[in-house]
């Protein structure tokens, strides 16, 4: 995060001293295409200055005797930023990193440009990982914890580079020193990384997710003909993660080439992957490790699908509330089929969806009483 400008040719714009060294406010462009703008004293950076690196990133702060000292701001090429403490040009001390949208990504300590000590790594979905990092700056050890978006439900145990190896259910407890403490549930099951494949939905198919189990349950839907549905076990505020949508990982072409009857529990994860909960795993007696696939469709939903990095399942989707929901309220999502007509048969969607869409559009078009 600094320019290796030793022995590089440079072009100076600005005042020079008697030895033709930058002196005052100057712009120096190096042969590496890095550029520095700031104050110089007889060729050395002294005072406020900013590096503009060839990859689009920047580093600004206060320089003393040619080295960055004190608070510095490094801006990544994607707009993310790192606020850190520099000693002799290297990160040494507390630091925080934010993504391009301003969301906190990291909080902890650096030593000689490497993360050290106890650190927090935050995900955009609201989850985070806490623990000590090793000499390579990786979140590796037997006392690492993943904390769910509620801020207190946790999985505590062994992780390698932030990836769950083996952990037990715990609760995050704050103490007077400010360092988090975790209380392990005495009868906890053991949880491990169990990312699905195209043929295997998981190893422990009947081991419920502890966070999800506190928030939702499956019962007969209030929607006519919908079968089972997903319901809130407790009141929840807007923007609350309620459930997780895990399943086997298949391709879009596989989904598109088969009958709609086989796609009742599919959801697009990204441009390459579709998550599917096929029979017989659509029955909770055979699979209940995640329950997001039980949420039914509505054109006026109270929830939405969102990306989520799960400690056990890896990258999946979650169900997140669009508004506050009450205990025992059914959770619904918009399935998001394409409404654009595809030939004479209308939108590319199953028949039940087309029928529901037609009824919804009729209700929307009907005149309201004045």
Succession of helices and strands: EEEEEEEEEEEEEEEEHEEEEHEEEEEEH
Cα-based radius of gyration, to the nearest Å: 27 Å
How would you sum up the major sheet?
16 strands, antiparallel
Quaternary state of this entry equals single chain
- Which residues sit in consecutive blocks of at least 5 with pLDDT less than 50? none
Helix proportion: under 10%
Query: Helices and strands: which structural class?
Result: mainly beta
Overall shape: it is elongated
Number of helices, counting only DSSP H or I runs of 4 residues or more = 3
The separation of the N and C termini measures 65 Å
Mean pLDDT: 91
Count of individual beta strands:
26
Indicate the proportion of strand residues. 35-45%
Q: How does this structure look, described?
A:
This protein has 370 residues and is mainly beta. 6% of the residues lie in helices and 44% in strands. It contains 3 helices and 26 strands. The chain has helices at residues 210-213, 252-256, 351-365; strands spanning 10-13, 24-30, 35-41, 44-52, 58-64, 67-75, 81-87, 90-98, 104-111, 114-122, 128-132, 141-147, 153-160, 163-173, 181-184, 190-191, 216-220, 228-232, 241-245, 248-251, 266-268, 273-276, 296-297, 303-310, 314-321, 330-333. It starts with 9 loop residues before the first strand and ends in a 5-residue tail after the last helix.
């Amino acid at each position: 995060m600094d320019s290796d400008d030793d022995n590089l040719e440079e072009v100076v714009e600005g005042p020079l001293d008697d030895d033709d060294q930058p002196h005052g406010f100057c712009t120096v462009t190096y042969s590496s295409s890095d550029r520095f703008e700031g104050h110089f004293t007889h060729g050395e950076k002294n005072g406020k200055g900013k590096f503009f690196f060839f990859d689009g990133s920047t580093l600004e702060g206060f320089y003393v005797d040619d080295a960055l000292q004190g608070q510095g701001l490094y801006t990544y090429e994607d707009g993310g930023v790192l606020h850190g403490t520099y000693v002799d040009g290297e990160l040494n001390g507390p630091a925080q990193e934010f993504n391009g949208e301003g969301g906190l990504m990291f909080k902890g300590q650096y030593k000689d440009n490497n993360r050290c000590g106890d650190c927090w790594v935050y995900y955009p979905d609201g989850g985070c990982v806490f623990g000590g990092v090793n000499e390579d700056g990786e979140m590796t050890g037997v006392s690492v914890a993943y904390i769910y978006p509620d801020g207190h439900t946790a999985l505590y145990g062994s992780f390698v580079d932030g990836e769950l190896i083996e952990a037990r259910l715990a609760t995050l407890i704050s103490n007077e020193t400010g360092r988090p403490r975790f209380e392990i549930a005495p009868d906890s099951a053991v949880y491990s990384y169990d990312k699905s494949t195209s043929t295997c939905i998981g190893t422990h198919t009947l081991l419920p997710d502890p966070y999800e189990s506190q928030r939702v349950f499956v019962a007969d839907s209030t929607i006519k003909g919908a079968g089972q549905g997903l319901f809130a076990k407790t009141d929840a505020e807007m923007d609350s993660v309620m459930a997780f949508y895990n399943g086997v990982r298949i391709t879009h072409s596989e989904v598109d080439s088969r009958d709609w009857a086989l796609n009742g529990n599919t959801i697009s994860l990204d441009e390459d992957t579709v998550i599917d909960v096929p029979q017989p795993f659509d029955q909770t007696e055979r699979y209940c490790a995640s329950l997001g696939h039980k949420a039914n469709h509505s054109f006026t939903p109270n929830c939405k699908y969102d990306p989520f990095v799960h400690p056990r399942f890896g990258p999946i989707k979650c169900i997140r509330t669009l508004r506050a929901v009450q205990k025992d309220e059914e959770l619904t999502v918009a399935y998001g089929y394409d409404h654009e007509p595809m030939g004479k048969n209308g939108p590319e969607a199953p028949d039940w969806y087309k029928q529901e869409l037609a009824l919804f559009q009729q209700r929307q078009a009907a005149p309201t009483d004045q």
